[in-house]
Amino acid sequence: MTYTLESAQTIFTDTQVPSPIPATIALFEQLNVDDKLALLWYAYTEMGRTITPAAVGAARLQLAEGLLNQVKQMSAADQTQFMRDLASRANTPLSRSYGFFSVNTKLAFWYELGELMKQGVVAPIPPDYQMTPGVKAVLAAIQKLDPGEQITVLRNAVVDMGFEDAVAPSPTETADEPMFPRTEPAPTKLKVEGITDSTVLNYFAALNADDFEAALALFTPDGALQPPFQKPIVGPDAIAKYMRSEAQGLNLMPQQGISETLPDGSKQLKVTGVVQTPWFGVNVGMNIGWRFLLNPQGKIFFVAIDMLASPQELLSLRPR
Ligand code: EQ3
Hints:
Layout: H1 5-9, H2 21-29, H3 33-48, H4 58-72, H5 76-87, H6 93-100, H7 103-119, H8 133-143, H9 147-159, H10 171-174, H11 198-208, H12 212-216, E1 219-226, E2 233-234, H13 236-246, E3 251-261, E4 267-276, E5 286-294, E6 300-307
Parallel strand pairs: 1-6
Antiparallel strand pairs: 1-2, 3-4, 4-5, 5-6
Helix pairs in contact: 3-8, 3-9, 4-7
The chain binds (3'R)-3'-hydroxy-beta,beta-caroten-4-one.
């Protein structure tokens, strides 16, 4: 094979439109800790008027229960300090406990804290808090994003909080990640305009069935998956761990694609469509692109998952 991970990452990049998400996250990162917490409160409650995340399952909350109970027993001042420590990634015992959580447990933890803030059990944003110009600017930037992009910014903020110990193994790493129950099964017999390749169609079907074993079997032993705004995850063990933790309950609705066969028999394909996360279900559709590189035997050597910059980009499959 003549390609490498680096060359695979560049396929179809000439069809891509830069996403506004990294710039919005960079603006958010410039805020001080109190402004970050306030901004997230306003962005989340504003969003909640139109879209609300699904209630968190009891099984998932159990993983966060110990930390939640500790927070509930604190004084209001300590609760505020705890949230500041999370947002500033301070190296404290509680901030480390949070850092051990999986992505979905972190989201569930903040979801519950938000509910407890509304009920007055956890210290709310001070009623006399005045939005600074910085907060207003980031809020305005977030309001310009579509709902799929807004939830991506929120998710990123939550995932980046807490202190992550690079050395200590995570106790939740071995704990079984509870499944997201599906209210309706996602379609596994898919028709994607312009795509007949069975590997690619089977990839979508496997993820829609939460069948990660079947999805993994489609990859080469050195295959890689690159999630949005992240580095590639390489090799079946790492991909399996990632999928079990982050790809559950997704509804993949690929719509159209293009396929090009290269002289050595390998293939590159770009597919665009909409993905729903179990957190928001049918209420939020994310515009997504998949860029696949298959080896001549039809195995996935590389797939990148990209957040598209606009619904128009769903149709921009050819170089710009
Ligand atoms: C309490 C409050 C509001 C205020 C306080 O001051 C601070 C905070 C943090 C607060 C709480 C905030 C909360 C509760 C935020 C919750 C946000 C949530 C639930 C966001 C969820 C977002 C989910 C997303 C963006 C999921 C995206 C998934 C994608 C794109 C999946 C892609 C994949 C595909 C399509 C594949 O083919 C392979 C796998 C892969 C996973 C990559």
